[in-house]
Design a protein that fits this description.
Layout: H1 4-20, H2 39-67, H3 81-98, H4 111-120, H5 126-139, H6 143-147, H7 151-158, H8 164-181, H9 190-193, H10 201-211, H11 221-229, H12 238-246, H13 254-267, H14 295-299
């Protein structure tokens, strides 16, 4: 009986705590919240049961897709033969505007000098040949003179061009053939020229086109590189390239086409790092992006007159916009 008020008080405290603070139960312990069972729970269970077969099916589909090889990306539409020819001829027209002064970059005054200079230009620059030939032609101005020369003296004169022993044999051999078989004159026929020592089709077409006005395509390393980059050919054989390019352009364009392509290859479309960002025919080039595309950086790659430097000829044509090249060290300008 004496404990009844305390019990009542404790019961009252419990009731106040339960009503006054729903989060706290008796003795300060957290009160477990009543969870009302909702129909959603049943629904989610049903949905999860339903989703399992769908997930399994999706997994199977994913595995099957992984095993099946992906379809190859759609290839770009191949350029037609007509499209290539039109693009090639447009490139030629554009180059004619860019290089209206294109010309052979070997100094010469007659067919004999051009023939000898072209043979000497193998495996070296035209500039080096132009710096070497004045002394050579001063000593041996005619085929008869060169044919009668002392080989060791000729070797010493042409030493700067490299491979001087083999080249001496070639130019003295062709001089002898000109003297003995052609009356000291350079022939104007392809079949005759290619019979001369050291003279191939490339050299023959240089001479025919620039000394005799006979159209020809000169397939040197620059021409070969650009013809492939522009998709005019896929061959790496000079004779095949010559034949394939000849089918694209009219014969009247062959000689000047050669000069323009070679000029472009030497000044802009270099072998190792083309100046794509400074190229005037970039929109027509399938190989755009192989070189430097930033305009400022590309301009620094330009050579000869395009880069503000001297050209390769000591005596360039009057319409050449660049500066003449310097003679060999120790040789006065204009010396013969």
């Amino acid at each position: 009986m004496s404990n009844s008020p305390v019990r009542a008080q404790a019961k009252g405290a419990g009731r106040v705590s339960a009503k006054g603070n729903s989060a706290v139960g008796e003795q300060g312990a957290p009160k477990r919240a009543k969870v009302t069972k909702r129909p959603v729970k049943a629904t989610s269970k049903a949905a999860s049961k339903t989703a399992k077969p769908a997930e399994k099916a999706a997994a199977k589909t994913t595995k099957a897709a992984a095993k099946t090889p992906k379809a190859a990306p759609r290839a770009a539409k191949a350029e037609s033969r007509l499209g290539m020819v039109r693009r090639a001829r447009k490139i030629n027209r554009e180059l004619a505007e860019v290089f209206p002064y294109a010309h052979p970059e070997l100094d010469f005054r007659n067919p004999f000098e051009l023939l000898v200079a072209t043979v000497l230009s193998a495996q070296t620059t035209d500039l080096r040949v132009n710096q070497t030939t004045p002394a050579l032609f001063a000593a041996y101005p005619t085929p008869e003179d060169l044919a009668a020369a002392v080989p060791e003296e000729v070797e010493e004169l042409i030493r700067p061009t490299g491979f001087f022993r083999a080249k001496t044999k070639s130019i003295m051999g062709l001089a002898t053939a000109l003297r003995d078989d052609f009356g000291g004159e350079v022939p104007g026929r392809l079949d005759d020229l290619v019979k001369l020592p050291g003279v191939g089709r490339k050299t023959a077409f240089v001479v025919l086109g620039n000394a005799f006005g006979v159209p020809g395509i000169t397939v040197d390393t620059h021409f070969m590189r650009l013809a492939r980059r522009w998709k005019w050919t896929e061959s790496d054989d000079p004779v095949k390239i010559e034949a394939e390019v000849a089918e694209i352009f009219p014969k009247s364009e062959w000689t000047m086409l050669s000069h323009r392509v070679i000029f472009h290859g030497r000044r802009i479309c270099h072998a190792r790092k083309p100046a794509c960002g400074a190229c005037p025919i970039a929109p027509l080039c399938p190989a755009y992006g192989e070189g430097e595309t930033d305009p400022e950086k590309a301009r620094k790659l330009l050579k000869y007159e395009k880069g503000g430097f001297p050209g390769q000829r000591l005596n360039p044509p009057p319409d050449y916009p660049g500066r003449p090249a310097a003679p060999a060290p120790g040789v006065a300008p204009g010396a013969e």
